[in-house]
Amino acid sequence: MSETVNISFSPADNRRLTNLCGVMDGNIEHIARAFEVAIRRRGEQFNVRGKSAQQAADTLQQLYTQAERHLDLVDVQIHMAQENGLVPTTPTFKKSTRRLAPKTASQAVFMDKILNHNVTLCAGPAGTGKTHVAVAAALQRLSDTPDTKLVLTRPAVEAGGERIGFLPGDMEQKVNPYLRPLIDILHCLLGYQETERHIARGRIEIIPLAFMRGLTIDNAIIILDEAQNTTAAQLKMALTRLGNNGRMVITGDISQSDLPTGCGSGLADAMKRLNNISGIAMHRFEESDVVRHPLVRKILRAYEERN
């Protein structure tokens, strides 16, 4: 049964109201869609109509108390995930040995963006679960769409002065250390045998970024990890590989680029350049989202303070 709830913020504070509503009332529109209600505003007075009007009104009240600062859409999504349980379902994959549920509200929001956008770019510090969540969401997509494949890629960029040419073996053996973390995540989520079975069947492909030039990848979800180590030209190349019925997730930690001095990060460039394109979602993790050992958060803070 539909209900109507009227709320009024008193005393009126135009700055808080502006922060609450967001750019072009984007925050209000998102809340209305999430709760499937209609929200009308006149000054500090809000009229909310729909089956979940009271929940939506409560969310407006709670966010108004936080609106001393600017609230962007991610802030609203995280609050709703924490307070109202509006998080996506836990990704699963047939015969998977482990399920990965979001460990933080920000991870839940990131997963939801991946499942509902054609392209998602994500930046954040080490230990926030960027790659794990991206792979888990991709496996959910594979489970829902049997004709889709998963393509995992990373740039082969040396860290700390190491040079790939000095590593032993042929080209495949040389690039394997750069792709190993992606394989380890698959083993963690699917198990060794299931992972190797999908790789053998071509359902999962793991390739260096340089090998993607010239390809058009249809019916696939592509994950580009460690994207802070791409140049703007490389990331443009990767983005334009997207084919029909495709999705792409791009993740990285802009603060840990191994590119030569003076070479800007393609991930940082893309997150500015593509910010307002429909169908492309942006997500940022913060230090508070770190889910690794508690010391990781302290280490990150120490480096930030020194800079």
TrEMBL record:
Outline the extent of the PhoH-like protein domain: 100-304
Where would you find this protein in the cell? Cytoplasm
Q: Does the keyword Calcium apply?
A: no
Q: Which Gene3D superfamilies match?
A: P-loop containing nucleotide triphosphate hydrolases (3.40.50.300)
**Keyword list, A-Z:** ATP-binding, Cytoplasm, Nucleotide-binding
Q: Which SUPFAM superfamilies match?
A: P-loop containing nucleoside triphosphate hydrolases (SSF52540)
User: Pfam families of this UniProt entry?
Assistant: PhoH
Q: Does the keyword Nucleotide-binding apply?
A: yes
Matches recorded under InterPro entries? P-loop_NTPase, PhoH, PhoH2-like
Main localization, broad class: cytoplasm
Q: What family, per the record?
A: Belongs to the PhoH family.
User: What is the designated name of this protein?
Assistant: PhoH-like protein
